[in-house]
């Protein structure tokens, strides 16, 4: 603060330069923001360059990830416990109450899958917002460089231009790798969500329309059937692919946080160097922008390698090429992958005759 006060007149001069520089900023989005020049320069000394939205979006996405993981945790144990048939025999004399209890449990099972689908959708939404904001934040940081007063010696201007170009290139690469993470996680989450919703719909439809004969034998058989297919479908829709999606999200989140801090550090350093003058000493890094960004480029390279290993067999690079084709295929991709988890002609083909006799009114879903 003391420094700022003692350089008051210098700041006033800088503000004039900033105002001039701002006029040349093409981004209408940026220019249309309410903008207080004084605040902006105060901000440069507080070092708050990373947009607050970045941290907010990260927090929301992290919370949604947690609730999806919580929702899915211990599913198989819960399923076993809820659909147990061992209590059936011991309560044999209270059949009415007993079957009602079992029907409630079956109903709750469909609620579970609806909820899981919703929670997966929230995570898909929040992680998408986070990835988009990460890209935007890297761009916002890039734009900060344009605030450096334009009235610099030509040699310095050239170095600045070069530095800006390097940072811009980094922004492009960073955005690409974020897009890969985005595409992978969205596809997986969409498929999981579709499978869960479809399976819940089928269960609900059976309970509401097939007119279940609620005797002990039928209850037992249908519960066993539900247990078997629920665990099978769950393992498929929330299995390896979803684990990879969680990992891809977590690693991308970590890298984004690191990248933002590094970019912020670079901008802070740059502002300091122009504020205090003495380019030759303070601005050495300007002379080799490529080297200055080496660490950052290697960080996103690491992320790429992580994707390649996780998603396997260089599928990531294939994805990059196929992206356009996939957009054209559109929803088809999703439909295909959720069909993969629902057995062919479910549930008709999977039910034995003895179980089918437990329904008065079997009709197509
Ligand atoms: C099991 O039952 C509990 C409480 O009745 C319910 O909250 C939970 O969603 C059920 N889980 C499954 C997998 O059906
Ligand atoms: C990111 O920026 C683009 C264009 O600059 C804008 O259209 C989009 O709404 C922004 N996204 C978020 C999530 O802020």
From TrEMBL:
Keyword terms: Signal
N-terminal signal peptide: 1-27
Domain of life: Eukaryota
Name of the molecule in the record: Protein TsetseEP domain-containing protein
Organism: Drosophila virilis (Fruit fly)
């Amino acid at each position: 603060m003391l420094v700022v006060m003692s350089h008051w007149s210098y700041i006033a001069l800088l503000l004039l330069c900033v105002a001039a520089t701002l006029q040349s900023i093409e981004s209408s989005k940026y220019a249309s923001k309410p903008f207080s020049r004084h605040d902006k320069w105060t901000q440069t000394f507080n070092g708050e360059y990373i947009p607050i939205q970045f941290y907010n979006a990260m927090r929301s996405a992290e919370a949604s990830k947690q609730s999806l993981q919580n929702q899915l945790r211990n599913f198989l144990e819960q399923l076993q416990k809820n659909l147990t048939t061992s209590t059936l025999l011991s309560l044999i004399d209270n059949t009415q109450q007993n079957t009602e209890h079992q029907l409630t449990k079956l109903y709750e099972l469909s609620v579970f899958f609806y909820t899981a689908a919703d929670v997966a959708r929230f995570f898909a939404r929040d992680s998408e917002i986070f990835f988009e904001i990460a890209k935007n934040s890297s761009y916002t940081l890039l734009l900060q460089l344009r605030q450096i007063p334009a009235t610099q010696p030509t040699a310095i201007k050239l170095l600045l231009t070069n530095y800006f170009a390097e940072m811009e290139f980094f922004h492009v690469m960073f955005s690409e790798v974020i897009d890969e993470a985005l595409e992978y996680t969205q596809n997986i989450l969409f498929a999981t969500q579709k499978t869960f919703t479809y399976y819940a719909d089928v269960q609900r439809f059976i309970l509401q329309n097939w007119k279940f004969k609620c005797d002990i034998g039928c209850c037992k058989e249908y519960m066993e059937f539900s247990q078997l297919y629920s665990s099978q479908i769950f393992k498929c829709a929330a299995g390896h692919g979803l684990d990879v999606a969680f990992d891809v999200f977590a690693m991308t989140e970590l890298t984004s946080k690191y990248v933002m801090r590094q970019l912020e550090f670079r901008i802070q350093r740059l502002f300091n160097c122009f504020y205090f003058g003495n380019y030759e000493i303070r601005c050495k890094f300007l002379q080799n922008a490529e080297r200055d960004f080496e660490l950052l480029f290697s960080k996103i390279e690491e992320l790429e390698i992580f994707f390649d290993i996780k998603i396997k067999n260089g599928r990531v690079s294939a994805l990059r090429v196929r992206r356009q084709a996939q957009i054209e295929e559109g929803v088809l991709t999703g439909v295909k992958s959720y069909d993969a988890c629902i057995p062919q002609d479910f549930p008709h083909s999977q039910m034995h005759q003895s179980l089918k006799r437990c329904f008065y009114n079997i009709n197509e879903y």
